[in-house]
Amino acid sequence: MKKIYLAGGCFWGPQAAFDLVKGVTKTVVGYAQSIIDNPSYEEVCTGLTRAAETVEVTYDESIIDLKGILDNFFKMINPTTLNRQGPDAGTQYRTGIYSTDEKDLEFASEYIQKYVQPQYRLPVVVQVQPLVNFYPAENYHQEFLKKNPNRHCNIDLSQFGNNK
Fold it and tell me: Which residues of this protein are catalytic (predicted)?
């Protein structure tokens, strides 16, 4: 199993979407790149932790490769908006790809240049960085949209439901 950490705005939607992707075996929402240990949601919302709402995606490479993961990720986000996705604004809602594997980071950078940037006139502002840290979010955030079916996010989950 491989892991990649993807920040795509509010983490509820990306988690719900990746939970529908064939080959993804587990997702955990949390906070990445924080300057303080184990920040709370309230602390992250202040912007002072510098953490990004992030989804830890564990996937089976024999079923889906990193390109497939990134293909799905870029269906979820607007890669040209800085510190904003949909109605959510703030540094915690920035977009990013984080990993402890240097080869995955190189691949992500090349993927953006080859497949993503040519689709946009504005510059792509998705961070590609080594993972500094990842702290799981509070339990009530885990699988939030599954637990709260009347809530919604800015991601069209119907794009992801037929491939698992």
Answer: 10
- 88-89/84-85 β-pairing: antiparallel
By DSSP bridging, strand 127-130 and strand 95-99 are parallel
Catalytic residue among 6, 7, 10, 77: 10
Q: Is 23 within 8 Å of 76 (Cβ atoms)?
A: no
Query: How far apart are alpha carbons 65 and 93 in whole angstroms?
Result: 25
**Contact between 21 and 58 (Cβ < 8 Å):** no
pLDDT tens string 7-22: 999 999 999 999 999 9
Give the C-alpha separation, 11 to 85, whole Å. Answer: 10
Q: Is the pTM higher than 0.90?
A: yes
10 is a catalytic site residue: yes
Q: Which two tokens stand for residue 94?
A: 């920035």
In 3D, which of 154, 36, 162, 24 has the Cα closest to residue 95? 154
Domain at 2-154: CATH architecture: 2-Layer Sandwich (3.30)
